[in-house]
Each structure stands twice: as structure tokens, then as C-alpha cells.
């Protein structure tokens, strides 16, 4: 299907639409990730960082960052003719966390982006999705010049359950991000199947 039209002789396909959240700490690359894969012009709610915000916005490690998401980022990607993902990037600073509950309503799953230079910044997102039983994948965003750590070390530092996928990614690279998103869908489907199995046994 191209631009909503079916191929000649084939009935139109009504795609399944799924909602995926992209969460993580301040400056971890959420806006970049959504923009890297979105097939539409991403909706962004970024504002310039100001002197008034410096006491509450920790920019250590991301000193070059000049803007911040204050509501959400939104993008869309068609993975298959019958599967469309809507991506919602959450704001990273604590003072905007009140928006997470509304953004997470109806979400199939989430990506928690992590930066090994500021790993503690994604603790809140991991805790949030664990408490609400929302399936999530941790994507370690491999920034230029950042140290690389073994997967087991990162997993231990985040205290992740064994069944939570952890992948290395580049939030700037479309194919890398697509792999992460496919991983979220697969993980969420696996979790849903386990829950159904537990109910019927």
C-alpha cells in the first residue's frame, strides 16, 4: 500500500496502529530517536533552555544541549503494510513527569533510552514502566566518545529483570531505531502471550 492506496486488484488493508512511548533522562536522545524514524514531520514541543531553569536542569554531560521537550514528541512509522507505530516521546525532566500518566494511556510498550555517562537518569523511567506492568526495552544510546560497557554490567546497574531486552542503538540511525522498535513490539507480544497463558492454566 502506498500513501493509503492499495495495489491494483488488492483490497485496501486497514493497518493495526500501536502506541509506543520513548522515555529516559534529560538529553538522552528521545527527540532524536523519534525524528530519525518518523515518516511524517515530527511534532515537537521543544523550548530553549533558560537561565531560570539551570538550577533544576542538570546539563552535565550534555552541555551543548540548548532545548528541551516540555510536553511530548510525536512521530509515526509504518513497519509493515498492516502495522503502524505511533511514537510518543516523553519529557525528561522531573518537573514534567506529571504528563507521563496521560501519555502512557493505551501504550503497547516503551523504549527506555539510556546514556552510560548518566545511567542514573533512566532509573525513574525503568521504575515507572515496571510499576505499571508496561513492557519495555532498554536501548543504550551509543553516543560518540562514550565508554562501552558489557551488557551484563549495564543490566546489573539498572537492576533489570532477566526478561527485559537490552540493546545497543544509535538514536540518529533509522535502521538502528527500527530494530529497537521491532524489539518493543515483539517483547510486548511475548508478555501478552505469557499473561494469557497464565490465565488459562
Automatic annotation (TrEMBL):
It comes from Streptomyces lusitanus. Belongs to the GPN-loop GTPase family. InterPro entries: Gliding_Motility_GTPase (IPR052705), Gpn (IPR004130), P-loop_NTPase (IPR027417). It comes from the Bacteria. Keywords: GTP-binding, Hydrolase, Nucleotide-binding. Signal peptide: none annotated. CDD domains: Ras_like_GTPase. This is ATP/GTP-binding protein. Pfam families: ATP_bind_1.
Amino acid at each position: 500500500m502506498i500513501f493509503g492506496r492499495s495495489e491494483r486488484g488488492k483490497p485496501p488493508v486497514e493497518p493495526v496502529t500501536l502506541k509506543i512511548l520513548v522515555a529516559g533522562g534529560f538529553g538522552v536522545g528521545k527527540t532524536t530517536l523519534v525524528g530519525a524514524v518518523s515518516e511524517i514531520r515530527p511534532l515537537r514541543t521543544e523550548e530553549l533552555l533558560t537561565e531560570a531553569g539551570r538550577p533544576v536542569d542538570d546539563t552535565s554531560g550534555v552541555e551543548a544541549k540548548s532545548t528541551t521537550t516540555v510536553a511530548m514528541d510525536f512521530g509515526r512509522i509504518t513497519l509493515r503494510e498492516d502495522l503502524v507505530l505511533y511514537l510518543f516521546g516523553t519529557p525528561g525532566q522531573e518537573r514534567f513527569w506529571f504528563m507521563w500518566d496521560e501519555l502512557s494511556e493505551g501504550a503497547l510498550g516503551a523504549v527506555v533510552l539510556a546514556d552510560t555517562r548518566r545511567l542514573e537518569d533512566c532509573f525513574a523511567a525503568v521504575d515507572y514502566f515496571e510499576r505499571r506492568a508496561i513492557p519495555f526495552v532498554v536501548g543504550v544510546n551509543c553516543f560518540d566518545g562514550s565508554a562501552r560497557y558489557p551488557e551484563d554490567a549495564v543490566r546489573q546497574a539498572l537492576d533489570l529483570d532477566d526478561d527485559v531486552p537490552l540493546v545497543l542503538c544509535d538514536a540518529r540511525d533509522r535502521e538502528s531505531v527500527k530494530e529497537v522498535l521491532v524489539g518493543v513490539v515483539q517483547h510486548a507480544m511475548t508478555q501478552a502471550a505469557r499473561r494469557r497463558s497464565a490465565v488459562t492454566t
